[in-house]
Amino acid sequence: MTLQQLKYIVTLSKYKSINEAAKHLFISQPSLSNSIKDLEDELNINIFIRNNKGITITSEGLTFLSYARQIVEQSDLLENKYINNNLT
Fold first, then answer.
1. Alpha-carbon Rg for the chain in angstroms
2. Looking at residue 87, what is its pLDDT?
3. 40, 46 Cβ separation under 8 angstroms
């Protein structure tokens, strides 16, 4: 599991479309799909259910998403505190 994959999960849950999330992440749709699938396989859970209308999050995915959001938010705080402040 990587921080990047967690960011992908959070973004995908926001847009509810692999194509839209991929556009906002500036990656290809297959790359996003593969990364999410790799994470699901690694953790042995289904975070999303995919269909031709987009994605829906599973109940297990909702729990995972709440943790992923916390980690991504903390990472953003660290970047803003230490990386972005050092640029000025």
1. 14
2. 59
3. yes
End-to-end CA distance of the chain: 32
Q: How are beta strands 54-57 and 48-51 bridged, if at all?
A: antiparallel
Does residue 23 surpass a pLDDT of 90? yes
SS3 label, residue 55:
strand
Phi, psi angles (nearest 5°) of residue 57: -90, 140
Q: Assess whether pLDDT exceeds 90 at residue 82.
A: no
The predicted-structure confidence for 65-77, as pLDDT tens digits, reads as follows 999 999 999 999 9
Q: CA 24, CA 12: separation in Å to the nearest integer?
A: 9
Task: Count how many Cα atoms sit within 13 Å of the Cα of residue 42 in the half-sphere of its side chain.
Answer: 10
pTM passes above 0.85: yes
Q: How many CA atoms lie within 13 A of 49 on its CB side?
A: 7
**Helix (H) / strand (E) containing 49:** strand 48-51
